[in-house]
Design brief:
single chain, 357 residues, alpha/beta, Nucleotidyltransferase, domain 5, 2 domains, 5-stranded mixed sheet, 13 strands, disordered N terminus
Length: 357
């Protein structure tokens, strides 16, 4: 790998957080969500009426061998794959913090933060990439609210190297919660921007979930919860004496065993809800504000029976959120399929929208 080229890419393009300001349309933009169980790809274009879904595809990891093979199969499903793609990282080794700092321009903030990053993240400053965003740029007070993000350098370097090896330029690297915030800012303000109301987004993946609290359409709290679809599969395997493949099959297609499956889900759901409550309690204490509703998205939302199990234990109202609902669907793509499967493509969509924020 040409390390100077890698450094040039980071110097020119690397950034977690883009300003939420629409810019000139740039044609077709693509996002790639590299999950622990599946790769998801979304390509969009801007029209006079809004945004249109140009292409979309997914490819499971199970049985596909190494990541390059998975990505190769995914690319083969897309016509005229783009030369550049936007992607994101999530989970251990990534962190988002919400802090107050003295008011200053963004460029000065980034310079100051690069020196003080070790105050806010449990990593040595020379081992992470950081970026930050001013949440209240129009504020007049001496202090300002800042969202700061960090990722361990080895994680970011490996991702960029992987994309370059497949012939894709990694022009933009973000974090999954910030990608979902892009969807809210650009497409879903009417859903999330009720004045002073706090709502949660629970992005439930296979290996874990991410919880973000939005206020006035802006992210104000974020944390990873390491409970996802895989934990529900493990519980099925243990409770019903199934091997891993059988447990996955039953989870995805429970048929007339759905009631028994939902019974098994009660315990891991309790653990997940407990973590959500702790998060909301912390947010409420820090901000003197309760979270009124939760929007469930991600591949975990498609697990049969999971929604009623979570809703029965959750204090806040729970709604399944499909981020692709805001896109125009051309005749060449099945609208019914987008409606049924689109819930797991939110991060990929948010990454594609990075060209427009």
């Amino acid at each position: 790998m040409n390390e100077p080229r890698l450094k040039k890419i980071f110097n020119a393009y690397f950034g977690f957080i883009r300003r939420f300001i629409p810019q000139t349309p740039v044609g077709i933009a693509a996002g790639l969500d590299i999950g622990s169980a599946e790769y998801k790809f979304v390509a969009i274009k801007k029209t006079k009426e809004g945004f249109e879904l140009e292409r979309w595809a997914s490819e499971p990891i199970a049985g596909n061998g190494d990541p390059a093979q998975v990505l190769g199969k995914l690319i083969s499903k897309t016509e005229h794959p783009p030369k550049a793609v936007y992607t994101a990282l999530t989970g251990k080794g990534t962190l988002i913090r919400f802090i107050e700092m003295p008011r200053m321009p963004l460029d000065e903030l980034r310079n100051a933060f690069s020196v003080e990053a070790d105050k806010y993240f449990p990593f040595p400053a020379d081992q992470i990439y950081t970026d930050c965003y001013i949440l209240d740029p129009a504020g007049k007070g001496r202090q300002m609210d800042v969202m700061a993000a960090a990722v361990r350098k080895e994680m970011a370097d490996e991702r960029i190297k992987f994309l370059l090896a497949q012939g894709w330029a990694g022009d933009y690297l973000s974090l999954n919660p910030i990608a979902l915030a892009n969807v809210v800012q650009i497409l879903a303000k009417d859903t999330f921007a009720a004045k002073d109301e706090a709502v949660g987004i629970l992005d439930m993946g296979e290996s874990g979930s991410n919880l973000t609290v939005m206020v006035n359409g802006q992210p104000r709290f974020c944390r990873d919860i390491f409970i996802g679809g895989l934990e529900f599969t493990r519980r099925l395997s243990q409770a019903l004496s199934l091997n891993p493949a059988e447990a996955v099959q039953l989870r995805n297609q429970p048929g007339d065993r759905l009631e028994a499956v939902m019974g098994v889900y009660e315990a891991p759901a309790q653990n997940l809800i407990r973590e959500i409550r702790l998060s909301f309690d912390y947010f409420s204490t820090e901000n003197d504000q309760d979270v009124k509703a939760v929007y469930l998205t991600g591949g975990g939302a498609l697990i049969p029976g999971i929604v009623p199990v979570l809703q029965n234990q959750m204090d806040s109202a729970l709604t399944v959120w499909n981020p692709l609902q805001y896109l125009k669907i051309p005749a060449s793509i099945s609208a019914a399929e987008v409606e049924s499967r689109g819930v797991k493509f939110g991060a990929a969509l948010g990454l594609a929208l990075a060209d427009y924020d």
